[in-house]
Amino acid sequence: MTVPQGPGMQAERTSLAWRRTALSVAVGSLAGLRVLPPQLGALGYAVSILGLLWSLDLALSARRRYRDGQRLLGAAGGATTAGTTVARTALTSGGFALVALVALVLLVRR
């Protein structure tokens, strides 16, 4: 199977990848909403809700990136949101990893 080539296809694939990431974060957050509160109490709810908000941010960023990419295909130059989206995603992932590490340490100490 060959991947169709043409203007805009890379932007389409990138947008779909960001949407898959947003969906994965949402599913993980919903699973966390089911599993974490009995173990962590209010912190479990907070982490899960923050994850759902993050997935919404990722989905909106994917939409914005695709729209900006389509606009840039028609015009030369212009600023994109790629760098800020990637940086925000990396920082948020690191924050969630830190919370997961703290939660793990708390669970082991019980």
Please specify the SSE layout and strand pairing.
Elements (H helix, E strand, L loop, with lengths): L8 H32 L1 H33 L7 H28 L1
Helix pairs in contact: 1-2, 2-3
Membrane topology: Multi-pass membrane protein
Subcellular location: Endomembrane system
Pfam families: DUF202 (PF02656)
Summarize this structure briefly.
85% of the residues lie in helices and 0% in strands. By secondary structure, it is mainly α.
The chain-level mean pLDDT equals: 79
Unreliable parts: none
Rg computed from alpha carbons, rounded to a whole number of angstroms: 18 Å
Fraction of residues in H or I helices:
over 70%
Structural class: mainly alpha
Number of strands: 0
N-end to C-end Cα span: 53 Å
SSE string: HHH
Total helices: the number is: 3
Strand content: under 5%
Q: Please describe the biggest sheet, giving its number of strands, its sense, and whether it closes into a barrel.
A: none
Number of domains: 1
Principal-axes geometry comes out as elongated
Protein name: DUF202 domain-containing protein
Keywords: Membrane, Transmembrane, Transmembrane helix
Domain DUF202: 7-68
Membrane topology: Multi-pass membrane protein
